Structures are given as structure tokens and as C-alpha cells.
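wait is this the right file?? whatever heres the structure
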């Protein structure tokens, strides 16, 4: 008998339906002739708690730390004992096992840990399913792989699980006990993903609060030429006049971004420019025109979808994951959703025309888009070298029944389908013109853009939508330019220009603006930060090594980590913004910097990738972790935590002032700060996130005296696919 073990019941049913012959439901499995299909229900096993290794560990004590198992133990989850019994009974009858976990690191662990726990030594095949529709499952059943090929992925998953247990359990116990010395009554949870993520928010909040706006003064002219007029801006950094002043010892009134911080030079120049009204008083110095193209945005990974859905529909990241899971399992409209890939296999291209036409049925807009698609086009998205265990999110080709879909399901399905349809539209092409003019020998610059071919942008009718799906490089550039002297909107076309032609000044003016603080994090920007964590690494040498690392957390865990931090009282949602609470800030200030910064976690992911992809042994990784762990435990400090609890405050945004059109004074956002010793931050439910502060217990207190009974809250969990 062949036994197939699926990750979850819905997948088991899909597999059974794709098997030949009739099948019948039994208690805990499905009988399909010479094949039986059973299932897990998430993790059936969990890492044993510390007191399973030694009864003494029921009482939390600094003397016990670090707790390092000599022989690792797994124990059945209480609600999983019945299903484990079914699997054990079926294994006794089986000649061969087929591992049908999800095609990712955690899916490999989830089923294989059960086989290892039950000491199965027979042959094991691997079934990889990313589309639960019957034809796709049938194809997958005909392409079974040897599970031994996936052993390195299992070793990486097991190393991750054990490392998270060691790191999270030991540091949570240490800082909870240290917190009690400092006067905080409650569990202080520390983890390798949640704590650096909290650190990002705390540092951003404090950067906003410490921000001091500076006024700057961009000078513009309305330049007239034979074919019309356009707005140009004084480029102060290359001003010959300012440079002559600098040569005489006058400091340049410019900041590091080239913004003019003193209005007087602009006012003096503006008075002179107002006299240059005759054509020929200035001239066009140079004209640079180039035709450019922008390819269609790639199909979505889960994180990329979460970012865009948060921007467009204000959906929390966890809601996007849950909705995608329903589209995949219940409605079978999309492929495997927990994917970190944005590419599709080349072999999929041949069948995309029929698949996409079917996927667009029932939606007038999608039907119109599919009717205009050229399915002979092969975009950059079809790239086998970029596809690993799973590919980008895509429609399965099943016709949707919109009456059965919720609004969120409909919106996300349309987004996923539209991004795949965009692969069959030509590139967006435009002409970009950059011009420099000279008036009174001073440089003025302007740029313009005219559309040659809308291409794929016709699928994104609203300008905001086109911006939402812009490639990361574009969004990064916009973020870096948002304090620029000129607006970052797409510039209008320029009139026809030739080098050397005469020009004049039709109008001029000076805008008074203020620099703005960075925006507070929200769901979209936090997910994006986790995807591109190297941007937040200060060590340049480390940053270079992290370019290819997937980031902080995984596709399956990023959304849940945000909710975890909220539930633990470290973050709160204020409108769309994520804000750190008092206890969240105090913890980050008290922890060793290595715990609250992303370098360690990103390097972990790099090491885990090497275990998976290069077959590196896991033992050295865990041994090095234990060395680091001992050093971190030695650095726990009650006095540091006590000081932090007494001095920090949670940030609350004040109403935004100013705004309006270009030319108005743009005020920076100000933030109120809780006074030292004021009320603690609140959790999402409104409960206090921390207790009173006390500074009587010093860091020099004996570690032997820092012990207590175990708090009610366990420091380890059994949720499906979690990062600490």
C-alpha cells in the first residue's frame, strides 16, 4: 500500500480526487484502492518544553540559563494525538510513503518530522503541489521525486526550529527575570525576528520625534522659448556665483542634498531674473532626449502582494495572507500563495492564453484586458533560473464565481490576475527630455516626459494604481527624493527645444518649504522593509553579503509577526501607522544592540540557505549560536531596563499641519512625547503593556536571587510556520 501524507485535510482531499478510481472517507484518512491519503493538521509535533528535559526548569531561574538540550525531544501536540495514531497505524501497513507537505522549508519539516519521530525507514517520495485543481494535482502525481533530494531543506528547517527555541526561550526567560528585577511584572518576549522588527519601528519613531525641520528655498522660473514655455529650477550646487562666494571664504548655504538653506541668495538672483524678459537674455545650454521603456511589473510574491494591498485597500498583511489561503484552498482560484518568488516557469507560457481567458470570465474589466493581450509575448517573468520550489502567485484558470467571493477575495484575485495579464502587454515607452538653461550665467534645469506607448499601463487606469505596482527600484528612488527641491510627480512634456536657442524669463518665484521627517511605518512599509532588510544594515561589509538573502522572516511568517508584536503590547496601530509602545521601546533600549538589529537574523537566513542549497552541516551553525547566546545572556541588565522604563515614552502623532499646493509653506509633522514616568503604552485591547517602574534592584544583584515560578505565558509555541 502507498501512503500519501498531506500537510492539511484540504490538500488530502484534492489529492484523493485526482487519484484514479473511487475513494472513500475513513476515520483520519481517505481510502483510494492501493493508495491511502492521510494528513497532518499543521504541526502535529512540537519542541518539548524545558521541563521535559529537567523538572527543575519549571521554575524560571537565571541560574539555569542557557538551557541546551543534549538530545532534542519532540512531543505530540495535545489536539493532534488522534491523527498521529492514525498515521502510525497506516505506516504499519504501508510499503511506500509520499511526502505531500507544502513546497517550502516549513512544509518539508512538518511531514518529515512525523516520519522521523515514528522511525519510518522505508522509501519516501516527494509530491510538490502548488495548484490544487485536479489537472494540476494529477500532473504532480505523475512527477514524484525522491524525498532524499529534499533532505538539505529538512536539515535547514530543523536547524531553524532548534535555533529559534534556543534563542527565544533562553532570552525570553532571561529578560523576563531581568524585567522583574527592574520592576516590570510580565513576560518580556524576545525572538530572532520579532525583536529586530520591533527595533525598526522604535528607531523610526524616535527618528521622527527627534527630527528638526529645516527651511529651504527652491527658486523657479517660467522660461519662454520660441515653441512655448515651461518651468525650470535653479541648480544651486553648480552655481558659478555661489562657488565664487565659497572661494572667498563664504560658506555655501546648501545642505547635503543641494537644497538652499538661506533665502537671501535666491531673493537677490530673483530680482535680477525679473529683468531678463527679452528673448535672448538667456539661452538653452543643452538638450538631452532619450527614449526609455519600463517592463510590466512582475507577478506577485506574497510579500509584494501584501505591500500593494496595504497601499490600495488598507488591508493588514495577515488579512492578505488569510484571504490568499482561502483563494487557494477553498476556491482553488490561485496557485500556492506563500511564495517568495515573482517568476513563472517557461513551460507555463504555452498554456497561458486559455488559462488567462478562463480566469478572466465574469469580470468585464479583466475580460477586456485579456481580449487585448498578446499571448505570444514572453516577458522577463518566464524565467526558470529564478524559480525554485514554487513560482509566483497566478490564477489557476478556474472560472471564478464572484457570488461566492468576499470583497477582499475579489480585490486580491483581480490584483493577482491583472499582474499576470500585464506580462502579455508591451513595455510602457516614453521619451524623457532633460534641458539646462543659462540666465545670468546661472544654471536652470528642467525635465519633461511624453508617452510613446502606454503598453501595460492601460491595465492600471488610475495613476495611483500605476504607482502602486512600480518596480521596487522606482519606489526606492521616490522615497529618497521626497525631500527634493522640486515635486516628484511625473513632469509634463516640454516644448520643442534646440541647443543654443534664445530664452527669456516670463515669471519667477521662490518657494519656502520645509524638510519632512520619514513616514512612520505601516503594514506595507514594514513588509517591504522585511523584504529588503539589507537597506537597514549599517555595516557596509555585512550589507554586501546580504543582497541575495530573502530578508527578515519568511513569506509565511511576516504578517503573523506584525500581529504578534501588537498582541504582546509592543506595537499599536494608530490609523494606518504602526507605533511602538513604552514597553516596546524600553525593551529595545535595554537589550544588547545585536539582539535588536537585523544583521544577526539576516545572517541566520544566509546560513540556513547554505545548509539547504550547498549542503552545509547544521551543527556548526548551532554551535556558533550557543556561543553568541552565552554572551547575550551575560549582558542582561536590570539597571539598563529600569532606566529605559523610566525614561522612554510611546510616540503619538499630532495632527498634521500645513500641506497644500506647491509654493505654500510645508510644515513637518510634529510628535508629542510622553513625559518621563507617564502612563505605559497600551496593547491593542487597551490593557496596560507594562507595570510600574522601579529602580531599586541593581544590575549587580546576584543572578542566584533572580528566580521565580514560570509565568503563565509559555515562551515556546506550536503555531504553524512561526518565527520567533
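ok assuming it is, sequence goes like this
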Amino acid at each position: 500500500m502507498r501512503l500519501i501524507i498531506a500537510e492539511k485535510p484540504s490538500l488530502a482531499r484534492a489529492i484523493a480526487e485526482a487519484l484514479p478510481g473511487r475513494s472513500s472517507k475513513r476515520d483520519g484518512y481517505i481510502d483510494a484502492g492501493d493508495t491511502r491519503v492521510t494528513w497532518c493538521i499543521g504541526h502535529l509535533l512540537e519542541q518539548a518544553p524545558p521541563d521535559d528535559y529537567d523538572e527543575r526548569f519549571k521554575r524560571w531561574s537565571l541560574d539555569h540559563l542557557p538551557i541546551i538540550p543534549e538530545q532534542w525531544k519532540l512531543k505530540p501536540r495535545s489536539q493532534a494525538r488522534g491523527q498521529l495514531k492514525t498515521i502510525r497505524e497506516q505506516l504499519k501497513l504501508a510499503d511506500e510513503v509520499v511526502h505531500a507537505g507544502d513546497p517550502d522549508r516549513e512544509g518539508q519539516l512538518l511531514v518529515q518530522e512525523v516520519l522521523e519521530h515514528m522511525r519510518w525507514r522505508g522509501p519516501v517520495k516527494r509530491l510538490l503541489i502548488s495548484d490544487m485543481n485536479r489537472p494540476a494535482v494529477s500532473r504532480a502525481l505523475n512527477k514524484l521525486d525522491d524525498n532524499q533530494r529534499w533532505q538539505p531543506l529538512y536539515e535547514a528547517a530543523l536547524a531553524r526550529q532548534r535555533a529559534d527555541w534556543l534563542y527565544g526561550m533562553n532570552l525570553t526567560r532571561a529578560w523576563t527575570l531581568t524585567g522583574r528585577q527592574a520592576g516590570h511584572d510580565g513576560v518580556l518576549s524576545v525572538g530572532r525576528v520579532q525583536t529586530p522588527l520591533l527595533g525598526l519601528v522604535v528607531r523610526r519613531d524616535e527618528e521622527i520625534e527627534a527630527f528638526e525641520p529645516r527651511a529651504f528655498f527652491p527658486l523657479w522660473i517660467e522660461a519662454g522659448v520660441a515653441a512655448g514655455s515651461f518651468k525650470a529650477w535653479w541648480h544651486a550646487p553648480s552655481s558659478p556665483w555661489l562657488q565664487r562666494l565659497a572661494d572667498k571664504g563664504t560658506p555655501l548655504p546648501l545642505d547635503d542634498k543641494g537644497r538652499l538653506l538661506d533665502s537671501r541668495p535666491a531673493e537677490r538672483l530673483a530680482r535680477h531674473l525679473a529683468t531678463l524678459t527679452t528673448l535672448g537674455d538667456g539661452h538653452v545650454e543643452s538638450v538631452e532626449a532619450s527614449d526609455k521603456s519600463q517592463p510590466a511589473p512582475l507577478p506577485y510574491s506574497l510579500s509584494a502582494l501584501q505591500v500593494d494591498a496595504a497601499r490600495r485597500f488598507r488591508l493588514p498583511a495577515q488579512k492578505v495572507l488569510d484571504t490568499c489561503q482561502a483563494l487557494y484552498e477553498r476556491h482553488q482560484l490561485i496557485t500556492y500563495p506563500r511564495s517568495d518568488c515573482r517568476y513563472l516557469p517557461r513551460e507555463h507560457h504555452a498554456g497561458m492564453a486559455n488559462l488567462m481567458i478562463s480566469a478572466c470570465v465574469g469580470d468585464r474589466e479583466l475580460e477586456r484586458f485579456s481580449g487585448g493581450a498578446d499571448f505570444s509575448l514572453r516577458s522577463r517573468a518566464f524565467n526558470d533560473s529564478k524559480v525554485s520550489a514554487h513560482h509566483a502567485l497566478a490564477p489557476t484558470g478556474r472560472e471564478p464565481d464572484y457570488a461566492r467571493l468576499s470583497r477582499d477575495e475579489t480585490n486580491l484575485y483581480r490584483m493577482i490576475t491583472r499582474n499576470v495579464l500585464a506580462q502579455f502587454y508591451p513595455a510602457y515607452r516614453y521619451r524623457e527630455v532633460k534641458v539646462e538653461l543659462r540666465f545670468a550665467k546661472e544654471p536652470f534645469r528642467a525635465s519633461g516626459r511624453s508617452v510613446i506607448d502606454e503598453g501595460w499601463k492601460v491595465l492600471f487606469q488610475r495613476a495611483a494604481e500605476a504607482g502602486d505596482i512600480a518596480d521596487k527600484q522606482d519606489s526606492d528612488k521616490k522615497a529618497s527624493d521626497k525631500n527634493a527641491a522640486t515635486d516628484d510627480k511625473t513632469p509634463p512634456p516640454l516644448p520643442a527645444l534646440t541647443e543654443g536657442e534664445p530664452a527669456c524669463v516670463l515669471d519667477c518665484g521662490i518657494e519656502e518649504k520645509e524638510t519632512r521627517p520619514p513616514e512612520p511605518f505601516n503594514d506595507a512599509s514594514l513588509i517591504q522593509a522585511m523584504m529588503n532588510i539589507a537597506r537597514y544594515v549599517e555595516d557596509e561589509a555585512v550589507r554586501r553579503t546580504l543582497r541575495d538573502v530573502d530578508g527578515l522572516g519568511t513569506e509565511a511568517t511576516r504578517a503573523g509577526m506584525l500581529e504578534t508584536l501588537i498582541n504582546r503590547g509592543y506595537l499599536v496601530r494608530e490609523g494606518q501607522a504602526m507605533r511602538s509602545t513604552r514597553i516596546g521601546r524600553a525593551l529595545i533600549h535595554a537589550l544588547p544592540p545585536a539582539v535588536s538589529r537585523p544583521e544577526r537574523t539576516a545572517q541566520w537566513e544566509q546560513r540556513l540557505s547554505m545548509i539547504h542549497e550547498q549542503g552545509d552541516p547544521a551543527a556548526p551553525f548551532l554551535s556558533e549560536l550557543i556561543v553568541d547566546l552565552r554572551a547575550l545572556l551575560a549582558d542582561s541588565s536590570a539597571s539598563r531596563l529600569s532606566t529605559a522604563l523610566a525614561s522612554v515614552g510611546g510616540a503619538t502623532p499630532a495632527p498634521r499641519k500645513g500641506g497644500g499646493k506647491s509654493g505654500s509653506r510645508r510644515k513637518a509633522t510634529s510628535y508629542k512625547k510622553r513625559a518621563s514616568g507617564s502612563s505605559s503604552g497600551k496593547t491593542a485591547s487597551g490593557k496596560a503593556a507594562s507595570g510600574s517602574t522601579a529602580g531599586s534592584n541593581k544590575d549587580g544583584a546576584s543572578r542566584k536571587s533572580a528566580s521565580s515560578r514560570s509565568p503563565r505565558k509559555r515562551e515556546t509555541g506550536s503555531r504553524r510556520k512561526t518565527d520567533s
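Residues 466-488, 651-722 have pLDDT under 50 and may be disordered. so i think its the right one actually
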